[in-house]
Structure prediction request, 394 residues.
Amino acid sequence: MPRHFAPERTVIQVTAKHPFYTEEHETLRRQARRFVEQEIIPHVDRWEAAGELPRSLHRAAAAAGLLQIGFPEAYGGIEVPDLFYLIVLTEELARAGSGGVIASLMSHGIGTPPIVHAGTHEQKQRFVTPVLAGEKIAALAITEPSGGSDVANLKTRAERDGDHYIVNGSKTFITSGMRADFITTAVRTGGPGMGGISLLVIEGDMPGLSRSPLKKMGWWCSDTATLYFDHVRVPVANRIGPENAGFMAIMMNFNQERIMLAAQAYALACVCYDEALAYARQRETFGKPLIKNQVIRHKLVDMRMRIEAVKAQLEMLAWRVSHRQMPVAEVCMLKNFATMSLEWIANEAMQILGGAGYLQGSKVERIYRETKVLSIGGGSQEIMKDLAARQMGY
Ligand SMILES: Cc1cc2nc3c(=O)[nH]c(=O)nc-3n(C[C@H](O)[C@H](O)[C@H](O)COP(=O)(O)OP(=O)(O)OC[C@H]3O[C@@H](n4cnc5c(N)ncnc54)[C@H](O)[C@@H]3O)c2cc1C
Prediction:
């Protein structure tokens, strides 16, 4: 896709009269859009090649008030009444056409909530405040080389030694794992199963922690790491919540994380659609614009149909979760529906763009490579179906 090509935004048309979006949401949208245009779009190709985001981006995003949304004011956050603020932010970040930017810039969105929910005041001041100020980077480390789906069976061991735990083991696929200063890490402190898991904040400079980068199909600018813990001494003061109560804190995190992954899939699908529509209007074949062919118009309608369905489900569940409901099965199904729709839509967009879509530098090329991670991370498609089935009593 040529760089000068400015796609039109045709899917997300919200007004102050919208049932879920107010003027405040729209103000955030304008601020985030300006930030993405000035601070992200000009640099994203360079960050993709470098394999990580600069720390200065975190500071700039904090200065723009984008990192703090949804966190308590007492720790530097910006409290908001609903999830639509984060959905708006995700939509705008997605305009850069890089899911990796969203994953890594917002990795504190999975790394810090367990601390906010279960940590002490002192822990929140130490680990949350500097992250929301963009000075430190947070990550969440659950998945291990032996498996990610079976969280209750994780093996990284933390043995108590006076005022410390001695941590041995390994984590893998950790987003922002190469750069993270605070790694909220699930460890086994007790017996087998979910009742033996605790959360420790492992700090990036602790002796015995080493990291190696992972090369991936997509999300290139999001540094992803395997972490090795070799007798890492972690103060008991870094334990989040009571000993052996970590599993619930991890699970509480998942509902919002899955809604936000669905929001990301939706927002990236919108980008694919916009790119495809704009290209179909501009590109001429056989003496007429592509869009004058019925088959292309039908593809676009089919793409839009899925986007509208995902949007409706996303907004309805975001509203329910914002009103303290816990529709776990529906959130699982939403995550699957949104991510499967993105895979289908990115494929159709690529087809409409033809060779131009296959070239690096095209948003659709990058998004196409990034689709699978959303169907795997944060609970894979199969695990989502299993959980939904259990929740519905099958
Ligand atoms: C780019 C990227 C970033 C990530 N970031 C993070 C992060 O920041 N922190 C973190 O902790 N993790 C992270 N993950 C890990 C992610 O959450 C795991 O990949 C995911 O949970 C699946 O675990 P697994 O890859 O070990 O697959 P496995 O658990 O080994 O499963 C392999 C396949 O088998 C299927 N499967 C497993 N069990 C069953 C079953 N009982 N029935 C049917 N099918 C089954 C799975 O759905 C999957 O398709 C990331 C992953 C990627 C790729």
